Amino acid sequence: MKGRIIGAVLGFLLFNFVGAIIGWFIGGAFDNKARIQRQNASARRAFSQDANYNQALINITFALMGYIARGAGAINNDHIQKANQIMDMMQLDESNRQLAKGAFNEGKQPDFDVAYKVRQLQSLVSGNFAFINYVLEMQIQIALSDGILEQEEHDRLINLARLLGVSVQSMERLIEIRYQEMMFSRGNYQDSYSYDNGSSNYGNDSSYDQGNSYQSESNSDKLKAAYDILGVTQDASDAELKKAHKRLMLKYHPDKLASQGLTPEMIRLYTEKAKDIQAAFDLIKKERGLK
After folding, report:
1. Residue 163: burial class (beta carbons within 10 Å; 0-12, 13-18, 19+)
2. 211: how many CB neighbours lie within 10 A of its CB?
3. Cα–Cα–Cα angle for 81, 86, 92, rounded to 5 degrees
4. What is the pLDDT, as a whole number, of residue 91?
5. How far apart are CA 194 and CA 84, in angstroms?
6. How many alpha carbons lie under 13 Å from residue 75 in its C-beta half-sphere?
7. Summary mean pLDDT of the chain
């Protein structure tokens, strides 16, 4: 109603009686928009704070992680350590940790139905891309946890992206960014991967498997990784650099994530991602002599 009253008053002052009528209807449109936004925000908050909802997301996320990790041929210590690290960052209590572990074991089984799990996720999040992006980020982290992306792991990541309606190009970009973030945070600064004919293999050294792999070049440096994290090239202007940094920091700001309905557990994980973005930006600023 507030929008209608303001609209009517302004309309009357500017265009007399006819303007008041027009302003009344225009103000009503703003009232409706504001009401819908409030309802959606309230629904998202209620949805993300529901215990059953949170547990369903934990179950789906970790089951898919088990599925992706199994693509390496066998679950290794790096996969397990990464899964436990994610549980720690999410601050899961003992009950939810057991839920996550059970889901992970479910996902690594040969008869795991990934398409069914994806349908569960889609039903749960109703096409909210923030959730879908979060789930894909977790799968990439588990796949890269040992520094190697096996062919089957890559194929499973791409298949998962397709099932979720994400393009192959977008998924490849997510993999590349996450790889650079991992290298940057470890202090193991390596160049962007190369990709050929759909085969993939992130390696821990500079070897290249039969010309069909993701290749880590040992001569690459941390500065290149920093630019890749920000999504700009080294010849980007200072203004472009700052714009890219601002865009990413806004994207992963806790308030922005909360407004999209992400749970506190998810937001904690993205807080770690924001730290890598800031560290990359600080490095480039130092190199360029920017303040």
Report:
1. middle
2. 10
3. 115
4. 83
5. 30
6. 19
7. 76
pLDDT tens by residue, 16-39 = 665 556 655 566 665 565 554 444
Q: What is the DSSP letter of 180?
A: H
Q: Residue 193 in contact with residue 202, Cβ under 8 Å?
A: yes
Structure tokens at 56: 């369903």
Yes or no: say if 126 and 120 are a contact pair by the CB < 8 Å rule. no
What is the C-alpha to C-alpha distance for residues 114 and 159, in angstroms, rounded to an integer? Answer: 9
CA angle 179, 184, 188 (to 5 degrees): 95
**CA dist 82 → 93, 146, 205, 234, 288 (Å):** 17, 9, 21, 31, 34
Distance between CA atoms of residues 189 and 172, nearest Å: 20
Sign (positive or negative) of CA dihedral 34, 36, 40, 46 = positive
Assess contact for 206 and 175: CB atoms under 8 A.
no
Q: How far is CA 264 from CA 128, 137, 251, in A?
A: 16, 16, 16
Looking at per-residue confidence, does 142 or 8 come out higher? 142
